[in-house]
Amino acid sequence: MLFKHFIIIFAFNLIGSNVLLANTDSTKINAITFHDKTAQKEAVIIDVRTAPEFEKSHLANALNYNWNNKETFKEQINALKKDADIYVYCLSGGRSSAAAEYMRKNGFTNVYELEGGLLKWLEQKLPVTESENNKSNNRYISIAAYNNIVNSSSKLVLVDFYADWCGPCKVMAPILASVSQKQSDLVQLLKVDADANTRLCETLGVYAIPDMRLYKNGKIVWQTAGTISQKKLQKLIKKHSK
């Protein structure tokens, strides 16, 4: 009897914990749900990235409220109704999560985040609005140009998908620069700005940054999402150059 009582209490606690977890996570929604919800006329869609990022590509009907400019962001959200359904996003989810939390603390009751950001949106092949001006951006790389570089190089090609605002990307930047200099006879470094090349990222399946890929004769021989030490990276390049 005591054992049955324990089981009942355990089950009740487990169910309660799951309910609490579901409530906690309910403000973060996946790309498909985000797409369906933002299709509603009353939905307010906020892109919290910088203006240059927004100009390159964004969701249809999105407002651009730059989270990095806190004073302006505060003024902009104060013009919104506190009980409105508000949907926020950035490239990978970090900034939108911070912005959404700030809004909730300031009285907004229905704020939802795009889990995984624009990269996860693109993973689902959902539509974005792209500026034609982006193609004249010196950081824009067409798929044809990308393929030409990785296929025609006589060296290994190390591709770094990054963004200026990405913390781990900033950690990798000096490491990659040093490696490409010290092993310049073995490897060519190609840096791809994920914000300026959302379609390229979608085509190549880049859904998190930093994303690094090592090509040999046009084929990927190694890749990783995240950071890696200079020592390990140099060993990998030496190994695959043989």
TrEMBL record:
The keyword Signal applies. The lineage of its organism: Bacteria, Pseudomonadati, Bacteroidota, Chitinophagia, Chitinophagales. Residues 120-242 form the Thioredoxin domain. Pfam families: Rhodanese, Thioredoxin. InterPro entries: Rhodanese-like_dom (IPR001763), Rhodanese-like_dom_sf (IPR036873), Thioredoxin-like_sf (IPR036249), Thioredoxin_CS (IPR017937), Thioredoxin_domain (IPR013766). PANTHER family: GEO12009P1. Transmembrane segments: none annotated. This is Thioredoxin domain-containing protein. The keyword Disulfide bond applies. Residues 39-130 form the Rhodanese domain. It comes from Polluticaenibacter yanchengensis. SUPFAM superfamilies: Rhodanese/Cell cycle control phosphatase, Thioredoxin-like. Keywords: Disulfide bond, Electron transport, Redox-active center, Signal, Transport. It comes from the Bacteria. PROSITE patterns: RHODANESE_3, THIOREDOXIN_1, THIOREDOXIN_2. Residues 1-22 form the signal peptide.
